[in-house]
Amino acid sequence: MDYNALKSGTDIRGVASPLGGKEVNLTDEAVYDISAAFVVWYVNKYQKSPSELIFAVGHDSRITGENIAERVKQAFINAGVTVLDCGLSSTPAMFMTTVDLKTDASVEITASHHPFDRNGLKFFTPEGGLDSSDLTEIVDLANNGEEIICNCAGVVVEVNYMSVYAARLRRMICEAVGKTETEKPLEGYKIVVDAGNGVGGFYAHEVLEKLGADIKGSRFLEPDGMFPNHIPNPENKEAMESICAAVRESGADLGLIFDTDVDRAGCVGSDGEEINRNRLIALSAYIAAGGRKGAVIVTDSVTSDGLKEFIEKELGGVHYRYRRGYKNVINKAIELTNEGKDCPLAIETSGHAALKENYFLDDGAYLVTKIVIELAKGTDINTLLKPLKMPVEEKEIRFNIKAEDFKTYGLNVIKELEEYASKVEGYKIADDNREGIRVSTENGWFLLRLSVHDPVMPMNFESNIAGGIEKDIDALREFFSKFSELDISALN
Fold first, then answer.
1. Sheet with 361-362, side-by-side order of all strands
2. Could you tell me which residues are beta bridge partners of residue 82?
3. How far apart are CA 47 and CA 172, in angstroms?
4. CA 49: distance to chain centroid?
5. Average pLDDT score over residue span 87-93
6. Residue 465 in 3-state DSSP?
7. Nearest to 200 by CA among 160, 237, 248, 234
8. In the chain, is it the N or the C terminus that has fewer CB atoms within a 10 Å radius of its CB?
């Protein structure tokens, strides 16, 4: 098969189990070939001998994780690479092996929040996660059957790195609060965790409980790759309702929720209200800026007007809206930092948050640790977020593009909408948007953009009044009706 079909942005993803009723395309052969190609790519890029290399391998709780790990390890040791087998691990922990264990590279076997029958590969070097162009090169090598076979096979060493990673998070809390572990800096606080049967259960037992927090009322901490309770995803409505209920029922001071592999997180305040999307960005910006004026906070394009006002007026920072895609946001923050800007945070509304102080790594456990520190310092999070203006309504609809050259067609729709909006009374085209077209209306705003990889145009709406979104949609129906190759049924 053509392995390009398995490339999803900066990750390899596919169907790994037939139990979901779909044909498996992330086969043992595919996993082996792509892992072998990664070694070839790494050796070519960094000019190192495979026998010099140490790669770490970890997996999330998915039912196919261990089997895929065996194929990955086999490809590595056949090339002569030494493998550190980290077993059940979070995605951020796999990157941190390049810091703490000085590995040359690592791979996490995960498909994030996708259904149980999916899985994938996420590669890291000490420079961070791979870019899409890097992965394209690796897939091309795999398609060509490129592989290194070493006369002296590599070895596999089992390592319990998650205990080292958890200890680092505990140290962060202790140092920030000014207490030792034996002094239990979180004693007196009730903090509940919903891990959704992913990897994140370690945070409750190995971080919070060991520092004295009461974690009774936590949910779904045990890893279960079938995800029997809800999708492990802070953007999922059922998942957020679960952690909100856990906070209310237990009377917790704080609730934490992770996605499957813990590179994303969300939280819930003591009032049982979710701190997610714009509210999570506002809280993260407050923490990352640390009171410094002029700090640049990079977000994706669909953040609210209220968030911009909070960052710039309440915090004295600069809100830099960029493109959707957590890697896009992170790369832009790194670019701005290299230009000399004070850019402490890159964060997407999905919950991917990367702090400069943490290698610009999107790490859900690191983010919530910073939030737990604020709680332990006595910060009233609910009061802190009160100035953030929230929209009354929000909605996303998606238009399918039927044209064969969907990118050209979609870009033309955006261009014509920009021309149209410039002539409509009450419309104002945003001067700080860097993706698609964003327009303020009398009711709120809308944003039309083009998906990077798919023939889809997502359109986001927010309104500050009840019924405002429907009014804005009504006003746009005639404009969109002239595009015969655009499926606008979502407008209805």
1. 318-321, 296-299, 345-347, 353-355, 361-362
2. 54
3. 36
4. 33
5. 98
6. coil
7. 234
8. C
Mean pLDDT of 18-41: 98
Question: CA-to-CA distance for 262 and 206, rounded, in angstroms?
Answer: 14
> Which residues lie closer than 8 Å to 25 by C-beta, 6 or more apart?
1, 5, 6, 14, 15
| Contact of 469 with 463, CB cutoff 8 Å | yes
Confidence of residue 452 (pLDDT cuts 50, 70, 90): confident
| Largest pairwise CA distance in the chain | 73
Query: How far apart are the C-alpha atoms of 84 and 62, rounded to whole Å?
Result: 20
The Cα 348–Cα 303 span in angstroms is 8
Average pLDDT over residues 171-181: 97
Secondary-structure breakdown of the chain: helix, strand, coil percentages, each rounded to the nearest 5? 40, 20, 40
Instruction: Output b/e per residue, 463-482; b: 16+ Cβ within 10 A.
Output: bbeeebbeebbebbeeebee
State the Cα–Cα distance between residues 251 and 445, nearest whole angstrom. 37
pLDDT band (50, 70, 90) for residue 454? confident
Write the burial class of residue 172 (CB in 10 Å: 0-12 exposed, 13-18 middle, 19+ buried). Answer: middle
pTM: 0.95
End-to-end CA distance of the chain: 39
Measured at the CA of 331, the angle between CA 385 and CA 417, to 5 degrees, comes to 75
pLDDT at 1 over 90: no
Q: Which residues lie across from 458 on neighbouring strands?
A: 398
pLDDT at 28 over 90: yes
